[in-house]
Amino acid sequence: MKKVIALGLLAISCFFYEARAQSFSTRIVRIEIDGKEVKKDYKVFFFSNGKWIEAKRTPTGFVIPNELRNEEYLTVLISFGKYKLKFSEIHISKFDQNWTVGIDKKPFSEEFVKPEEAKTTKRVYYIQFGGSGLISTQLVVIEKKTE
């Protein structure tokens, strides 16, 4: 009987450990350029203590490195093809949501860039958090041309 209880407790603790580990996994559901999905392999990096740390990939996304799991805000670099997209200060709560990562190329969508700002805009990229029936939010980075 003690063996059964011990095995049950072990199974329960494994379940909670796995559930906790899953909460640190982020799913990238789509990578897109101008709204069209691209099938590119990507890498995810986190910036901490002056260096970039590559995230462990999962079949559908990535896992936050152990040493960063207690941080409130994280800086992320997503690299695919010729693109390197840097997102600063993403709140830890956003890592529990599905992500769509995208680039908006010229001519820029008015959703991201006002027409009068298009001439001074070099590049636009974003992460859309949530979606699929949920209320979604997005983080948009607009890089201006240097003169």
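The above is record 1. Record 2 follows with the same two-line structure.
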Amino acid sequence: MDDIGNIIYILFILVSILGGVWQNISKQKKEKQERKVAYEPVFQDDELEQLQTVKSEKDQEAAEKLKSMESAAQKASNERRLKRRNLLEEKEHLEREASLAAEMNAEDFDPKKAVIYSEILNPPYL
């Protein structure tokens, strides 16, 4: 016979191979059981209907909130547009007034008439 060390070595390899096969078989059984558990429904029909109604209510609330936010954004946009338009109109008005004042000739101004009109409009005794 060969050396006893070789026989022990072969037995050790056979035991380790059998142990690996055994672990693999038990691992596959556990995975099958986990798959069966994973496919079982988590909720009952009543609970599922309740969750669907809650979800639809929350969807409706979210849609309403989105509509209100969109309307608020539209209002803000309109207000900014109006402010911008008012500022432009005011600027144009000031420019027109400045141009009218510039068009007035110094020759048309009479200081004597200005003092008389000033005293008529603002009398000192009232």
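The radius of gyration is 48 Å.
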